[in-house]
Amino acid sequence: MRRTAGSLSVIAYVAMGMVLIPIVGLFIRVPWTRIGDLFVSDTATTAFWISLQTSLMATAVCLLLGIPLAWMMANASSRLHSVFRAIVTIPVVLPPVVGGIALLAAVGRRGVFGDLLSSIGISLPYTRAAVVLSQVFVAMPFLVLAVENHFRQLDRGVVDASRVMGMTPLRSFFLVVLPMSWPAVIAGAVLAWARSVGEFGASITFAGSLRGRTQTLPMAVYELLERDWELAMGLSALMVVFA
Asked: 143-181 pLDDT, tens per residue?
């Protein structure tokens, strides 16, 4: 028994090392004497504010759309639940750049709904809205899965009691279900926000990397990597702390 526990501990430490060693290596190699240059760099500061704005907007959209979806999934039949869960998790397993291509195919200028959007004066690709939409696409599953798991574990007796007392389903949801679910909602929102901040592949494909317009922190790191390796490492370290 002790040997088994010891072997599992070794494997656990190896797994921890695979995550921790690259981060430690990054912080060791960061030229801390130049870290101040990031705060006077237009590329870094502008990208920071764009990332902050778009990620907060994306998180708000995820909350607005994801909580009702999570509730619907939690109350669906087992067969429908499996279908919904498979659909929701697609962005998690999909390569991010493929997600960007899918967004272009759907709502790009030549996309399936591109003509419809153009007819009402909306053009999404290579705009700030495209950054937000890309972040929502990849981040919403994290919120939905966290909240849906909690909804399925709720005491249904309390919910049913609110219905017996005369509450409508909508009133019961806002006054009974949500107050009991705030920890899960907050946890899901934090996960969605963190994923939005780190989003790169779908955003750069669908929104581009236009400095001052759509360039977020990950895109700024990629740009700095080509012309200033040291500043790129410094910005990467700041993103680790930020995350």
From this structure: 999 999 999 888 777 777 777 687 887 888 888 888 889
CA distance 126 to 215: 10
Summarize pLDDT for 21-50 with one digit per residue, the tens: 999 998 888 888 887 887 777 888 899 999
Q: What is the DSSP string of 54-109?
A: HHHHHHHHHHHHHHHHHHHHHTS-HHHHHHHHHHHTHHHHS-HHHHHHHHHHHHST
Q: Which two tokens stand for residue 170?
A: 């909508």
Report the C-alpha gap between 242 and 230 in whole angstroms.
Answer: 18
CB-CB contact of 58 with 143 (8 Å):
no
Give the H/E segment covering residue 3: helix 2-29
Please give the single-letter amino acid code of residue 146.
Answer: A
- Determine how many CB atoms are found less than 10 A away from the CB of residue 68: 12
**Burial readout 7-16 (b: 16 or more C-beta within 10 A, e: otherwise):** eeeeeeeeee
CA distance 209 to 125: 11
3-class DSSP state of 208? coil
Separation between Cα atoms, residue 13 and residue 187, nearest integer Å: 26
State pLDDT tens for residues 51-68.
999 999 999 999 999 999
Residue type, 75: N
| Whole-angstrom distance, CA of residue 227 vs CA of residue 12 | 38
